Amino acid sequence: MNSIDFSVILLTIQLALITTLLLLVLGGPIAWWLSRSQNRLKPAVEAITTLPLVLPPTVLGFYFLVVFNPHTPLGSFIVFLTGESLTFSFQGLVVASIIYSMPFMVQPLKIAFDKLDQGILESARVLGANPWVCLYRIVIPSCIRGIVSAMVLTFAHTVGEFGVVLMIGGNIPGKTRVISIAIYEHVETLNYESAHMLALGLIVFSFLTLLVVYAMNREPTVRLT
Which CATH class is domain 3-215? Predict the structure, then answer.
């Protein structure tokens, strides 16, 4: 019986965790702006943040390679700053995953922020609460279900990425070889037993993820007595 390569699982979890945390920091302000702004650029920003939902991942991966390869001005500048290229590196996977998973963080957060009672925030400001107090005392507690759902969906989506990570990271053991790439390699080498174990694990993980999200967003039933 083939053993599971746990380094692949650990690398995938690491990628998904880093991507989720960074997207929470980056996507939170974007979602808040989209929820509150009436700027004429809002439709364009919404389209850009949602684009990865309809864009083939290979398209994103291709242009990532074009823009960030070491022979371009931006790519060579990154190499000068960091000492390594973003292409075929774990750091490149993180950057690409942030872009590709953006809708799964921004959209649930925006929906949660849309439901937030603006009157509560206005009352808090009138009473002298600064923006940070409003954030930690009002926004986060009121939108916690949406925040958790956004994080769970982003984490799960990053775990299941294939096209983007294959084009950008390739298949470097211990560096860019994540679960989806390992499954692809196992199938190519006719190692169906290992592919089955990893694929079944992803199916169970995906089901549990959706179960948690739907359970958290389930509206309580009101019974008339």
Answer: mainly alpha
